[in-house]
């Protein structure tokens, strides 16, 4: 398949503060890897950000003007349809890509043809553009059995604006973003891509992600959670055949780690045992890795359950009720060490 350029960078923007937007654009134009087109989809902006975009003279920049605000998912698909690159690179309008990002992601994908998408670790910026932390990598990279197990419970990443996709595979299999997902469209994308190749997060920090007050509102967080659940319902239905809204809520609240007030209960434990039994029958996931991950979730829930329990004996009872014998023994030894 012939492509007109090595990389198509896709970025959607809507009313982005111009200083942030300028930093994001310049971080792409200043990449050490130069063979790319930069597709910016202006999603019906109503502020002065459009004036800044019109001032860009770099010939690699292609701006698509939407007459109305469609939302990021539809805007990303507009960019995908226009892309001519061998690879697709994602970018957000308020983040900063480090200069060697494309160079390193391109080289990795060229060397690993079985990888359908890669991403990278990120640094977190505060409002003053000061780096305050870096993300870590969880699990062995490229282990798709473990990756798919994690996907049953959480969005396993990589962080969306670092994503670098193999465009040919997407074209061959008709892969685009699910426009039913207004937010958390990356979770849905990872689930789809996971059937066609490996997904890897590079150990390098290649992007700075900015945290600011415009990003998260209570209303948006609620919609994002609903979009997460839409993807989880799809995954759980393949395993269980049917999932009620109540079961989906229980699974999401206890599995993601987003809710600090959830605890272990007989109902929760029975739900995870049901997943293990269903997989024993259907063989969708590596059974050993599924059981290991569920054990990890149960341990976290037990810690939250016993944290306010004063009686060591009662703590032991809870541990032995929900954990297999040897993990329970180890957990009890940990309780004894912390109580000394």
Core attributes:
single chain; about 350 residues; alpha/beta; Spore Coat Polysaccharide Biosynthesis Protein SpsA, Chain A; 2 domains; nine-stranded mixed beta sheet; 9 strands; about 20% strand
Description of the structure:
The protein is of the alpha/beta class and 340 residues long. The protein has 2 domains: 5-210, Spore Coat Polysaccharide Biosynthesis Protein SpsA, Chain A (Alpha-Beta Complex), CATH 3.90.550; 218-339, no CATH class. It is 47% helix and 18% strand. It has 13 helices and 9 strands. Strands 1, 2, 3, 4, 5, 6, 7, 8 and 9 form a 9-stranded mixed β-sheet that branches. Helix 7 runs parallel beside helix 8, helix 10 (266-282) packs antiparallel against helix 11 (287-306) and helix 12 (312-322) runs antiparallel to helix 13. The longest helix has 23 residues, at 218-240. The model has no long low-confidence stretch (mean pLDDT 93).
């Amino acid at each position: 398949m012939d492509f007109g350029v090595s990389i198509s960078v896709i970025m959607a923007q809507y009313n982005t503060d111009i200083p942030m937007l300028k930093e994001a654009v310049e971080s792409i134009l200043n990449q050490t890897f130069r063979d790319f087109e930069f597709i910016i989809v202006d999603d019906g902006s109503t502020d002065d950000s459009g004036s800044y975009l019109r001032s860009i003279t770099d010939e690699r920049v292609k701006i698509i003007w939407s007459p109305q605000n469609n939302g990021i998912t539809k805007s990303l698909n507009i960019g995908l349809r226009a892309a001519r690159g061998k690879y697709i690179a994602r970018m957000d309008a308020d983040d900063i890509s480090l200069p060697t990002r494309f160079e390193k992601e391109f080289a990795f994908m060229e060397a690993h043809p079985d990888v359908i998408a890669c991403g990278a670790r990120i640094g977190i910026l505060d409002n003053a553009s000061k780096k305050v932390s870096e993300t870590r990598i969880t699990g062995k990279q490229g282990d798709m059995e473990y990756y798919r197990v994690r996907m049953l419970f959480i969005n396993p990443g990589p962080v969306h604006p670092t994503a670098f996709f193999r465009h040919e595979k997407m074209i061959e299999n008709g892969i685009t973003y699910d426009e039913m997902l207004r937010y958390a469209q990356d979770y849905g994308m990872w689930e789809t891509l996971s059937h066609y190749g490996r997904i890897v997060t590079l150990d390098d920090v290649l992007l700075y992600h900015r945290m600011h007050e415009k990003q998260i509102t209570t209303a948006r967080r609620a919609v994002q959670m609903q979009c997460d659940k839409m993807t989880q319902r799809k995954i759980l239905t393949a395993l269980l055949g049917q999932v009620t809204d109540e079961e989906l809520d229980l699974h999401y609240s206890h599995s993601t780690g987003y809710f600090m007030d959830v605890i272990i209960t007989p109902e929760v434990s029975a739900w995870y045992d049901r997943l293990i039994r269903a997989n024993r029958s259907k063989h969708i996931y590596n059974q050993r890795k599924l059981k290991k991950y569920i054990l990890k979730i149960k341990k976290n829930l037990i810690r939250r359950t016993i944290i306010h329990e004063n009686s060591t004996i009662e703590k032991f009872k809870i541990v032995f009720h929900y954990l297999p014998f040897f993990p329970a023994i180890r957990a009890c030894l940990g309780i004894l060490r912390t109580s000394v």
